[in-house]
Amino acid sequence: MTLRQAQGEAVVARDLVVRYEDFTALVGATLAVHYGEALGIVGPNGSGKSTLLKTIAGLLLPSSGELRVLGQQPRKLSPGTIAYVPQVEAVDWSFPATVWDVVAMGRFARLHFWQHFGPNDREVVHHALDVVSMADLAGRRISNLSGGQQQRAFVARALAQEPKLLLLDEPTTGVDAATEEALREIVRKLVADGLPVLMATHDLDRVDDWFDRLLVIDRRVLALGTPREVVESGAYSAIREHTHTHGHLRHDHEPHAAHAAHPEIRA
Amino acid sequence: MELLTEPFHYAFMQRAFVAALAVGLICSTMGTYVILRKLSFIGDGIAHASFAGIVIAYLRGANFYLGAGIVAVLTAVGIGFVHRRGRISLDTTIGVLFTGMFALGVFLMSQQRSYAVDLQSFLFGDILAVQPQDLWLILGLSVVVGVTVAVLFRGLLYTTFDPVVAQASGINSPAYEYALLVMLALTIVVALQAVGIVLVAALLVTPAAAAYQLTSRFSPMMVLAALFGAASTEGGLYLSYYVRASSGATIVLLATLLFFSAVGLKYLRRA
User: Fold this and answer.
1) How many angstroms away from the CA of A242 is the closest CA of chain B?
2) What pLDDT digit, counting tens, does each position of B118-159 carry?
3) Are the beta carbons of A111 and B154 separated by less than 8 Å?
4) Which residues of A touch B87 (CB under 8 A)?
5) Do the Cβ atoms of A96 and B151 come within 8 Å?
6) Which of B84, B170, B215 is nearest residue A109 as measured by Cβ atoms?
7) pTM given for the model
8) How large is the C-alpha radius of gyration of chain A?
9) Which H or E element spans position B247?
10) Which residues of B218-236 are buried (b: 16+ CB within 10 A; e: fewer)?
11) Cα–Cα distances in Å, from B23 out to B70, B139, B242?
């Protein structure tokens, strides 16, 4: 069964509760993501956008509720199924690696240790670099990339993985307008090919162009529907107001990626 | 000519050169991960903690490597576990475990009436005292660590650069971290006799740090680090024979010299 033919729901969550030690980041979230749709996740800082993505990626375990990703618990999926694109600050860019090296890592989950990194893997990496228009930068050391290039390299790594589900955490933060538009086109193309995409975003101005549906959260689900439905529900304007007036003040609620990196990957 | 090859005439020197080569290669290979994962304090911690194992093994008449090895691996896994599960920071965890275990070693040793001279050699290293059976153990452990690095290469690389995304893609990042900590512990045990507890951290950090200055990709960094490590241990041992100085100290000084040369070369290339 190809992705295009797949019907039904790629992600189903019911009454999902996620806690960080003494802070409840998600309270009873219920939602579904269809195949071949881009679902945008909007909400103020600390509203649980990243937490939701990380839980779906299997990086965090829900303390209660039910979660099915492609019909399974996230950690039971075969390697390479879920591609997660974190915010670029999540890694140390002084690491000795070229753009090619980083994108090639996308193949690693699919290779057993005795398998060679073969011609097919190289071709997939080449193609991923082409898609994000970075083929000419393949040999550049990652410490010499701009923010937009770093983001595109991360997206290329995710594409090289040939995932069945793509999760993006605010990929448009801190990138230039050209990169943002390029990313939007890439996402729309993937969605048209049947890939389910979930993307957290801060940018509320172009949600119609990016997403088929919107999820508005602030630790609990406030609204879920097409951008138009969500606007009409009023939840969106409340968030918009909230983000613009209080967004920067609530930053301390959501654990920063660097702090959360270790608790998240507990076995 | 006779003067230059003189060190190789003695069996104990031949063993020392083979042991030094193994230690240099393996420490600096692991050092690549130590540098990039910022584990140098862990290396120091494991080395000090293993002192307790050495003393216990000595008092019970057991093999030094066995005692050091068991304690080093337990400490490494303990550090990894407390770090992952606990609410204590990594620095604090290592600080507490490493001083506690070291104190246990000193405590047990101080209860002995006869002062143990051999224990001193583990603090500062005495590669000239390597016995044939020690050499087999060193070579065996080196092969185990080397093969493991080769087999786990891609996973270790990915989880070193980006453990979170690697985990999301289905790679078991915590398992790789534990595997690395156990290999680090074994490496430290291998290095103990060569350079001693006090200097082992230098051999884990300095050659890899020198290689980091001169390379822009991971694999070349690891290869160059191994070369620098082997050059430091072999060269240091050779020099120490003529200058009649401590081999451990000479090895580390040579590695340090290589590091500053690498930094200098980096700036020359930029200019």
Assistant:
1) 30
2) 666 667 778 888 888 889 988 998 999 999 999 999 999 999
3) yes
4) 21
5) no
6) B170
7) 0.88
8) 18
9) helix B247-270
10) beebbebbbbbbbbbbbbb
11) 19, 9, 21
Pairing of strands A9-20, A82-85: unpaired
Q: What is the SS3 assignment for B87?
A: coil
Closest chain A residue by Cα to residue B173: A265
Look at residues B12, B270, B25, B10 and name the one whose alpha carbon lies nearest to residue B143: B25
Nearest CA in chain A to B215: A96
Look-up of token digits 């989950």 = A109
- Measured distance CA(A15)–CA(A5) in Å, rounded: 29
Cβ-Cβ contacts under 8 Å for A116 (sequence gap 6 or more)? none
Other Cβ atoms closer than 10 A to B180:
25
Is residue B172 within 8 angstroms of chain A, CB to CB? yes
The residues that bridge with B135 in the sheet, in sequence order, are none
Q: What is the pLDDT of residues B185-232, one digit of tens each?
A: 999 988 887 778 878 888 999 999 999 999 999 999 999 999 999 999
Report the alpha-carbon distance of residue B22 to residue B91 in Å, rounded. 30
- Written as one letter, the residue type at B193 is Q
Mutual orientation of helices B11-37 and B173-214 as an angle, nearest 10°? Answer: 110
- A189's tokens: 């193309």
Phi/psi of residue A167, nearest 5 degrees: -115, 125
The closest CB to that of A96, out of B87, B164, B221, belongs to: B221
Closest chain B residue to the Cα of A259, Cα to Cα: B89
* Number of alpha helices (DSSP H) and beta strands (DSSP E) in chain A: 9, 9
pLDDT for position A249: 35
For B145, what's the count of Cα atoms within 13 Å in the CB-facing half-sphere? 29
Q: Is the CB of A167 less than 8 angstroms away from the CB of B158?
A: no
Burial level of A240, CB count in 10 A (0-12/13-18/19+)? middle
- Contact with chain A for residue B168, Cβ under 8 A: yes
Whether the Cβ atoms of residue A44 and residue A241 lie closer than 8 Å to each other: no
How would you list the strands of the sheet with A64-69, edge to edge? A23-34, A9-20, A64-69
- Give the distance from CA B177 to its chain's centroid: 17
Of A28, A47, A31, A69, nearest in space to A167 by CA: A69
Residue B136's Cβ-count burial label (10 Å; 0-12, 13-18, 19+) is: exposed
Q: Which of A69, A84, A116 is the best residue to mutate to test the B interface, defined by the most B CB atoms within 10 Å of its own CB?
A: A84
CA distance B57 to chain A (A): 33
Comparing CA positions, the residue from A138, A111, A142, A115 lying closest to residue A127 is A138
